[in-house]
Structure formats: structure tokens, C-alpha cells
Amino acid sequence: MDPGCVWPWQGWAGRMPRALECYFLSSTLSTRLLPALYSVVLLVGLPANALACWVLATNFRRCSSAVFLLNLAGADLLFVLLLPFKISYHLLGNHWPFGDYLCRAMMAFFYGNMYSSIFFLTCIGLERYISVAHPFLWKSSSWTKGKVGISVGIWLLVGLGMSPLLLRSHTHSISSLNITTCHDVLEKETQRFFGYYFLFLVGLGFGLPFVLMIISYSCILARLLAKGGSHGQVIRVLALVLLVFILCFTPSNVLLFIHHLLEPTGCNNGTYISYALALVLSACNNCFDPFIYFYVSRDFRGWLRDAGGRCLRGLEASSGRSTEKTALPLRSSEQSQGCQAVCPCPGDEGV
């Protein structure tokens, strides 16, 4: 192994025995299980998020409740579009043939998706709090503009936070295996830099939003209990968002923090292998988010049902006309418009 390089599971000072130095890169877990799991995320996440983006973008100007949801769907769609590169990387035995700059982009999009999703899920929770505590502010047009501004600010913040991943090289050639890795093997100086970087990233990108979500949800529950009555739907929405947040993002961020905080020495690869699996769980967030849209937003459910109903009726009408061998130059145009149309916003009922 190159003495100037550090394997991520070694920390900043460790040395791994040569018999085990390539265990993770050549293991079945890395070359078979991980690409299989990421393939499931791709097959589910790509159509689900593409549909969500289409439905939300079509109705973006009609309903303010689509602002944070559309940004979340857009981040997820960008992520799944890059998954084929990561899948092929693992299938090729952790060999990266696409060049250093695309490796940098992959890492930036990977972590950028994680933390942008965290921020937008936090915004959805805060939006629920405002809808309960300040309903008139929530309905106002100024709040709609404010949500657009917040979304732009989040993208700028995430872009700034991911810039170190774009500025540092992540590829390294391993002659003994005849492969070029992407982020799995780093130069000592680069590993030391990313140690501090990821500690800061976990604190700001996960710790702070987690605290905000707990505070906002506690305030919502306190207000609902004070008002009395039945608020089961709101509580279920909050529980769902919080469950997805904890399930998808807590394991990977906690393991990432522990890995860089402990600075392990010797053959201590258990944390990194667990972290690699936890990253797959973070990627599964891309599959869960579209179901959050459907469950959280009554507007989204209405748009989806209406679009599906119109397309189904259009297909049935097209099939009937084909059977009857009826000319339809004008009707074909009407059918296309019906399939593309989405129902009017049912009163901006909120997220």
C-alpha cells in the first residue's frame, strides 16, 4: 500500500496489515451488495421523483405548498441521475474510470443531496409549526415569497458547503489491484483535511437541523394539546417526517462523526464498513420522499389523482376510437391536452 495514503477506516495515524488492507475494496459487500442496494434506489427513486417533479412543477404557481416539496424532489432527482456512476464503480471492483472531476462531482452531489434533503425536511417541519402557530402568516403571499427565498438560500448554503469536495482530488490508483478508487483511499493530507471538514459538516448540516426539528415539533405538540380537540393528521405528518429524518440520516451522520472523532489506529475498519451501509440508508431517502409528498400534501394527492384519471380516460378513449377506426386529428389534440392537464389548486390547503 502506498505509504503516503490512508484508508478511510484507518483514521489519520493507523496502519492496516497487508493481508487485510484490500478487504473492503474486494469484498462481496462492496462489489455486490452495495451496487444491488443502490440499483433498487435507482429503480424506485427515478420514476417516483420524476413524477413528483412533474406534478409539483406543473402546479408550482398555483399553490405555495409545493415550494419546499419541489426543491426536495429536485434534489432527489439530481441524485438518482448520478447513481449509475456509483453503481458501476462498485460493480467494477471499486474502480473509477470516469476521471477525477466526475468523482469530485459525484461526492459533492452525494453529500449535497443528503444535507439539502435534511434542510428541506426541516423546512417542512417548520412550515407545519407556522401553519399551527401563525395561520394567517402562513396563508399570506409574503410567506410564499419567503419560502422561495429560503429555498434559494439553502441551495447557496449547500453549494458553498460542498465546494471543498469539488476542490480536492478524490481518486487514487492502486497498482496491486489495478484499480483507481474514488474517495475510498485518500492522501494523508487530504484525509486530515476531510476529517475536520466532515466534523463541521455533521454539526452544521445534521446537528443544527435536528435540534430545530425537535424544538419546532415540541412547540407544535404543546400548542395542539393546549387547544384541545383532535389533531391526529398533523401529528401523523410530523411523526412521518421525523421518522424518515431519523431513519435515513442519523446512522450515517453519527458513524461519520465517530469515525473522524476517534481517529482510530490499527486495523479498525468496522466503523467505515458500517458507514458505507448507512450511506445506502441515506440514499433510500430518495425513495421515501415521494411518499411523504403524497401523505403530507392534500394538494399533491389531488393533483396526482386528477392527472392519473385524465391520462387513463384519454387512453381508454384512444383505444375505443382505434377499435372503431374513427378519424381523430382534432380529438387527438384534445386528448393530449387532457392528459397533460392538472386539476386546479384545491384552495392551497397546505403541506
From TrEMBL:
Domain G-protein coupled receptors family 1 profile: 48-293
Keywords noted in UniProt: Cell membrane, Disulfide bond, G-protein coupled receptor, Glycoprotein, Membrane, Receptor, Transducer, Transmembrane, Transmembrane helix
Residue pairs linked by disulfide bridges in the UniProt entry: 103-182
Stretches that traverse the bilayer: 36-57, 66-85, 105-127, 148-167, 196-225, 237-260, 272-296
Gene Ontology BP annotations: blood coagulation; phospholipase C-activating G protein-coupled receptor signaling pathway; positive regulation of Rho protein signal transduction
Topology with respect to the bilayer: Multi-pass membrane protein
Subcellular location: Cell membrane
Family: Belongs to the G-protein coupled receptor 1 family.
Protein name: G-protein coupled receptors family 1 profile domain-containing protein
Lineage of the species this protein comes from: Eukaryota, Metazoa, Chordata, Craniata, Vertebrata
